[in-house]
Amino acid sequence: MSFQLGDQLMVVASSPDIAKEFCKTNDRIFSGRHLPSVYHNLPGIMNSSIVLSPDCSKSWKLLRSIGQNCVFSSKAMESNAWIRKAKVMDLVNHLRTNEGKVANLEDMMFATLANIISCALTSRNLFDIHGQENNEYKEMMALVNEVIEKTTTLGLVDFLPILKGIDFWSKKKAMDMYRKIKQTWGGIIDERKSMGRENLSSTPDFLDIVLADNTFSEDQIGNALIELLIGATDSTTITTVWLIVELMRNQEMLTKVRDEIAQAIVGDVLNETLLSQCNYFQACIKETLRLHVPLQSSVPHRAIETCKVNDYVIPKDSMVLVNAWAIARDPNYWEEATSFKPERFLDSKIGYRGTHFEYLPFGTGLRMCPGSAVAFKNIQMLVGSLLHYFDWSLPNGADPTTIDTNEKYFTTLKKENPLLLIPKLRKLNSTV
Ligand code: HEM
């Protein structure tokens, strides 16, 4: 399917075969990113991006490889396991002291995930999870949404480049956003530059490595950090919320997950290795990522040169979208495609690493999400802990099987209404 909007051709791949043509057969050619004009007005962002790098440039490779060392690789995930555990236990303790009170799960998940990635990147928490009355993380969630919206939404000038000279609006939007990004990381970067790793553990983090490399300015480091923060929080938060919604609506499945976790762990302490052996729970996570693909049209790709795909000529600079949402609900590939059926993944070889083109929640090819395994670990630890340590009920005693599944369309596909639940500590063999 293709659309011509002004000067811009937009091509959408909505079947596994076409997705394969774009992201495997012609992967290099479609490895560019299509970016709205607002992006070009952000100081320092050029050559300091992973997600929004216009092509697979030298700086993209450098940042991806530093990310690989500090966050994405198996070795990095292993050395960051203590961070995941500590931040999830902070949340568990916070909920324990607020037992019986309504919790907004999206807020809680976001704050915890932001602290996990911020500690891995800069050895610093972004929020005090217990001090929620100051609502710092609400402001950060608003900034995350703003950056996603402004860097992914196309405006008139993107379709009619002739208007570029008079596009003061994009410049203003970009500068407002830039100021907020600077505020978020400026203090942390300055502190590291002046004090080094004083009072921090001896292992260098992402911030140490990019500072030592001397390739990037402070603005550029701030941009790279905000991109990684967004990558690591937004889609993962969405998935944890949908997973809990689906399990609350299907109480038998919820009991099955809990029993599986209880049998796998030792002494009521959740452990990542043991959790990853809980096959039914893993299948529930995969099914959530199928039915509720967070980035339904991936992140827009760009043809870096003209190319022929299935006899169609796709001109250089065309925008290419992979409709992972439509593919994951295609009845030709999925039985009862719109139902939540984790069992479908139990005896299936279909994985999330981008080699099965009917299931692409993390994309595929050169620009595939490098954080897929990190996301999986975060989801299993967060949701596993919340289900293991607490019973959950709806405000006013409402029936959990009636929780709505209305979606709110944004760049990512969120639950429309907040998931408000009341935690009650479960009686376990030992205390948390
Ligand atoms: C459920 C959670 C997640 C989902 C569904 C998801 C999905 C995606 C998708 C669809 C893309 C674009 C792929 C493409 O262009 O073809 C992407 C890119 C990216 N993601 Fe994720 N992601 C998740 C979690 C994470 C995490 C935890 C991190 C970091 C720790 C991360 C970092 C990134 C980065 C840096 C890119 C840009 C890759 C590039 O352009 O080279 N993501 N993600």
Automatic annotation (TrEMBL):
- Cross-referenced SUPFAM superfamilies: Cytochrome P450
Q: Where are the transmembrane segments?
A: none
State the compartments where it is located: Membrane
Superkingdom as given in the UniProt entry: Eukaryota
Keywords, A to Z?
Heme, Iron, Metal-binding, Monooxygenase, Oxidoreductase
Q: Which cofactor does it need?
A: heme
Membrane topology for this entry?
Answer: Single-pass membrane protein
Q: What Pfam families does this protein map onto? A: p450 (PF00067)
Read off the InterPro entries from this record. Answer: Cyt_P450, Cyt_P450_CS, Cyt_P450_E_grp-I, Cyt_P450_sf
- Signal peptide: which range, if any? none
Q: Which family does it belong to?
A: Belongs to the cytochrome P450 family.
What protein name applies here?
Cytochrome P450 protein
Organism taxonomic ancestry: Eukaryota, Viridiplantae, Streptophyta, Embryophyta, Tracheophyta
